[in-house]
Amino acid sequence: MKSHGSRDKLQAAASSGHRRVLLLVFASCFALATFLTYVYNTSRLASASASASGSAASAVAESALPLPVFDALVHYASLSNATHRMTDTDIRAISAVLRARGPCNLLVFGLTTESPLWVALNHGGRTVFLDENEFYVKYLEPRHPGLEAYDVSYTTKVRDMRDLLDAARASRAAECRPVQNLLFSECRLAINDLPNELYDVAWDIILIDGPSGWNPTSPGRMPSIFTTAVLARTGATAAKGPTDVLLHDFQFEVEQVLSKEFLCDENRVAGSGTPSLAHFVIRGGGPRDAFCSGQDSTAATSQTPQEKTEFGGKGKKTGTGSTSTRSSDK
């Protein structure tokens, strides 16, 4: 009986050991399967992420206008004999910035002969026009499907430029500050009646080619220059990085004086414009009470000594430039 009992014990011990080996093998196989599943899923996620990034980049590349088409449009636009069109050099300078930044969010003050060209060159992006003439907006929209334009009611006059500038300087730390929500601005130079969503767009390029300013009762570009300067420093536009600002008809008094005040000489890109087109790069943020370096927030003089020299001391630019008809005014 003793020998039978020992044999049973040995058999039980062998059976128990066998089960432990099987359990160990099973656990090892389970751990290996879990590890391989984790590696496989991680690899798939990485591949999917890379594929999504590549697809997004590919989508942007595909939406951009092919360069031969881009160049052909610029070429034929520069040869146009349309009335009141831009010069060949101005068209090519603006097109060069669009090629570098597009497709992008492009805001244009003024509806002009070149408006369809800007829409075409920014193919795949968003191009929005703001114009003083409600009837011209309604006239162009059905003739150019896809044209997005809004009319703006300007309350300023060219003849009031000095008074408006004095008021803006006096309230640079308050109503006319560089960083603010334009929807609620009480600054006389602020445009605050646009569709609300336009203030939330991250504008990459802003082209100032309006409103008209060819006589003392014209609105002038004082509001569009000030509003551009604030947009570029505020909200979504400031958050996405620098904004390229292109100012047409730069040879005139309003454009020179207001750009010096709000767009700033230190932001001007040397060699990228023309005598009649200035190119600025505006970065977001900055001081609360100054648009440009060296500005005194408490100063509210009607003219600086330099302005008195440049513009004859009475707000009138010397020479023939200030009295010539603007090529882009309708």
TrEMBL record:
Residue ranges with Low complexity bias: 319-330
Keywords of this entry: Membrane, Transmembrane, Transmembrane helix
Amino acid composition bias (Polar residues), ranges on this chain: 294-306
Subcellular locations according to the entry: Golgi apparatus membrane
Membrane topology: Single-pass membrane protein
Renumbered residue ranges of the record's region Disordered: 291-330
Superkingdom assignment: Eukaryota
Pfam families, A to Z: IRX15_IRX15L_GXM (PF21729)
Gene Ontology BP annotations: xylan biosynthetic process
One GO cellular component, as annotated: Golgi membrane
Transmembrane segments: 21-40
Name of the protein in question: Polysaccharide biosynthesis domain-containing protein
Organism of origin: Zizania palustris
